[in-house]
Specification:
By secondary structure, the protein is mainly α. It has helices at about 15-25, 30-45, 55-60, 70-75, 90-105, and strands spanning about 50, 80, 85-90. The radius of gyration is 19 Å and the shape is globular.
């Protein structure tokens, strides 16, 4: 599995005003799951929290009117706009230290594998 095996989440996420706002905007009391799916994607694939705008609704598994969820996520401030990509709000703030640790740990040699070298290794 690529990426983080788990990620940090705010404990009041389901009751937070932003989550309630998103639920009202898309008229779905379980709309927080769209955000969870985006965060899961970031943990698995996009460690920097950046997602192309055109992929957001597919990743979230949105089945409503095209563009509706993207607009609601931006309005409720779960997504920040950065050109043609969207940034999951708070992703790096909440998970940045874990991401850096994961990157460091995965750069280390494992088991009996040898570390990469700059040139040929002699037997002498």
């Amino acid at each position: 599995m690529a990426g983080l095996p788990w990620y940090c989440q705010w404990t009041d996420f389901a009751r937070h005003a932003k989550t309630r706002e998103l639920c009202a905007l898309v008229r779905d009391r379980n709309a927080g799951m769209y955000v969870v799916r985006l965060r899961e994607h970031c943990a698995e694939q996009q460690l920097d929290g950046r997602i192309p705008a055109g992929a957001v609704e597919d990743i979230a598994e949105w089945r409503g009117k095209e563009g509706g969820l993207l607009l609601a996520l931006e309005k409720s401030k779960f997504l920040e706009v950065d050109g043609g990509v969207r940034v999951v709000h708070g992703w790096v703030d909440k998970n940045g230290s874990r991401i850096q640790k994961w990157l460091r740990d995965n750069a280390k040699p494992r088991g009996n594998r040898k570390a990469p070298t700059d040139g040929p290794v002699s037997d002498r």
